[in-house]
């Protein structure tokens, strides 16, 4: 990432972004570029066609030097001065109308392209982030991911739009310059030099300021996400501690800094324009003065008028280009960091829609496994064999590494050293990515905290299955085995009752039983219970466990229990 922080940062970033645009957008982009080219060309014609109009007002005989107009006059048999004036004016109006219609079309198309490309890129970032393995997320700050997805997706459409507008500005710029050359070469070169110099100096001066602002805004965005996540994730404690003010103050502070930085970036983009506009007006008057005094030219007005229009167009494209640069430069930090997410590699098998399962036949073996979080050694030369159909219990004081061991068995964590073999296959080997996906699909995992969606009981038990495809009898069976059937039936809409956000309407024990019902509905060959019955009373726990154990002898169960009596019926007990 730090290699981006060099001189040509913007172009490198641009190139990398372009490489992420899907090929299917090429046609649309080419079409839009063609339209942009035509729009630019019409700017040339616009500027150039004003001169004949103005000339026809003041000294129409001069028009005869213009071949196109001569041709038109002859074609329509226009002879009188007045009809020539009307004709040139009509041509000018006609051209302006066409040109602006094309311009509107271009803007419309650009906005559409920006929307689809923006959406392509944002979806890809979300996809890349969500498809990262578990250990990636453990090492990564969630606030950073969320902030990137939210702010990144907010700005990316504007950035694409800005880039397209800049292309339009460059094309317009070139065409207007050609028109100005046609009107007066010296003035064209003179204004080009002055304007470019001014803008280059400003850009040189503002670049670091903008970069710093973009970094500040980036940091604050992450902070705001963190603040929001922490405050609403702990709302119970905040209410009890009455610490709302603390969060409000923090929020106000960072939000204000962010808004100020954004406003300043915006201002830096606009400010030079007023200065340069004044300069341009003054130069037009000065050019007029020069023409009047030294050349004693009687046709000053037409030339001045068209130069004025040309300069105004030139200045406008300069300004657009500059403002686009400010916009991008002021968001350079989020753009580079968004790119990191775009560049992430993912396991392509994750997105397979058919949930193929691993046909577990024999055993899961942990062979000489070492595991550490950073420097904290959790497992040392650990060996374990779990045979199909057995019930394994894991016990040990809290913090000993029970959940870690389970995560290693499931393939969510990867041993620092050693192997996890499922039916002899090393699931963590790169070439076995596909097998690992299948292995994931054959596991049901129930933890202490069950994640519930704000959907109906039925949808929460048949998790991830579209409503029409849910086998309601199986749902009911699973609910019976998990001893939650009677409770669900007692609610207003029974299995159609919604559970509330994150299951807020339910008790801890009810959530756990729904989790167990979900695992049973999935019908996996391996069931893992990580203190999944911790919130149940002794009697209910015993009944649930009995149901699970008597399920069928193909099911392999690995369970961690805080009550040792729960482990009574296990074939093997591991103590950590
Ligand atoms: N993501 C993590 N990063 C660093 N240390 C962790 C992480 N998760 C757990 N630990 C540490 O690893 C040890 C084992 O944790 P865990 O497997 O959750 O224990 P148990 O499930 O037995 O209570 C604990 O000391 C815990 O602090
Ligand atoms: Mg645990």
From TrEMBL:
ABC transmembrane type-1 domain: from which residue to which, for each copy?
A: 30-330
Keyword list (alphabetical) reads: ATP-binding, Membrane, Nucleotide-binding, Transmembrane, Transmembrane helix
Q: Decide whether keyword Nucleus is in the record.
A: no
> SUPFAM superfamilies, per this entry?
ABC transporter transmembrane region, P-loop containing nucleoside triphosphate hydrolases
Q: Which residues cross the membrane?
A: 28-54, 83-102, 163-183, 189-206, 271-293
Top-level taxon of the source organism = Bacteria
**How does the record say this protein sits in the membrane?**
Multi-pass membrane protein
GO molecular function: any one? ATP binding
Subcellular location(s) of the protein: Cell membrane
**Domain ABC transporter: residue ranges:** 364-576
Listed name of the protein: ATPase
Gene Ontology annotations for the cellular component aspect, listed alphabetically: plasma membrane
In which broad location class does this protein mainly occur, judging by the first location in its UniProt entry? membrane
């Amino acid at each position: 990432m730090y290699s981006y922080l060099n001189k040509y940062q913007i172009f490198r970033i641009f190139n990398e972004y372009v490489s992420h645009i899907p090929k299917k957008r090429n046609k649309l982009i080419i079409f839009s570029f063609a339209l942009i080219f035509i729009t630019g060309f019409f700017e040339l014609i616009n500027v150039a066609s004003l001169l004949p109009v103005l000339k026809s007002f003041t000294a129409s005989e001069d028009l005869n030097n213009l071949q196109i107009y001569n041709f038109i006059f002859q074609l329509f048999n226009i002879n009188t001065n007045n009809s020539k004036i009307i004709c040139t004016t009509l041509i000018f109006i006609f051209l302006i109308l066409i040109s602006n219609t094309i311009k509107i079309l271009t803007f419309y198309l650009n906005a559409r392209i920006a929307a689809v490309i923006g959406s392509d890129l944002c979806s890809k970032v979300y996809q890349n982030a969500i498809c990262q393995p578990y250990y990636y997320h453990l090492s990564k700050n969630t606030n950073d991911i969320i902030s990137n997805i939210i702010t990144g997706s907010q700005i990316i459409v504007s950035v694409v739009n800005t880039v397209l507008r800049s292309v339009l500005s460059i094309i317009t710029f070139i065409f207007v310059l050609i028109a100005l050359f046609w009107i007066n070469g010296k003035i064209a070169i003179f204004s080009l030099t002055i304007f470019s110099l001014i803008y280059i100096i400003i850009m040189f001066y503002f670049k670091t300021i903008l970069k710093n602002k973009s970094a500040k805004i980036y940091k604050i965005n992450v902070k705001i996400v963190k603040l929001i996540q922490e405050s609403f994730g702990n709302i119970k404690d905040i209410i009890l501690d009455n610490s709302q003010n603390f969060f409000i103050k923090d929020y106000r502070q960072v939000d204000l800094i962010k808004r100020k930085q954004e406003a300043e970036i915006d201002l830096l983009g606009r400010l030079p324009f007023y200065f340069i506009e004044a300069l341009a007006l003054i130069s037009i008057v000065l050019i007029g003065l020069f023409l009047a005094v030294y050349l004693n030219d009687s046709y000053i007005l037409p030339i001045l008028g068209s130069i004025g229009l040309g300069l105004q167009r030139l200045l406008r494209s300069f300004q657009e280009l500059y403002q686009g640069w400010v916009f991008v430069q002021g968001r350079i930090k989020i753009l580079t960091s968004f790119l990191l997410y775009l560049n992430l590699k993912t396991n392509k098998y994750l997105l397979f829609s058919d949930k193929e399962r691993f046909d577990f036949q024999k055993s899961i073996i942990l062979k000489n496994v070492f595991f550490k979080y950073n420097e904290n050694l959790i497992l040392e030369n650990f060996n374990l064999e779990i045979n199909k159909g057995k019930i394994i219990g894991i016990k040990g004081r809290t913090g000993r590494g029970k959940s870690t061991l389970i995560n290693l068995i499931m393939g969510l964590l990867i041993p620092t050293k050693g192997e996890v073999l499922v039916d002899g296959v090393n699931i963590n080997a790169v070439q076995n990515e596909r097998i690992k996906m299948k292995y994931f699909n054959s596991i049901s995992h129930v933890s202490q905290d069950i994640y519930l969606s704000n959907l109906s009981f039925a949808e929460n038990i048949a998790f991830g299955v579209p409503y029409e495809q849910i086998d309601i009898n199986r749902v009911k069976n699973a609910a019976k085995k998990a001893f939650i059937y009677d409770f669900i039936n007692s609610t207003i809409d029974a299995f159609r009752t919604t559970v509330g956000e994150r299951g807020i309407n339910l008790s801890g024990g009810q959530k756990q039983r729904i989790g167990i019902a979900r695992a049973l509905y999935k019908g996996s060959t391996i069931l893992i219970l990580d203190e999944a019955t911790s919130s149940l009373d002794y009697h209910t726990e015993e009944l649930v466990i009995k149901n699970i154990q008597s399920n069928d002898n193909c099911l392999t169960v690995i369970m961690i229990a805080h009550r040792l009596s729960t482990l009574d019926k296990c074939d093997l007990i591991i103590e950590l």
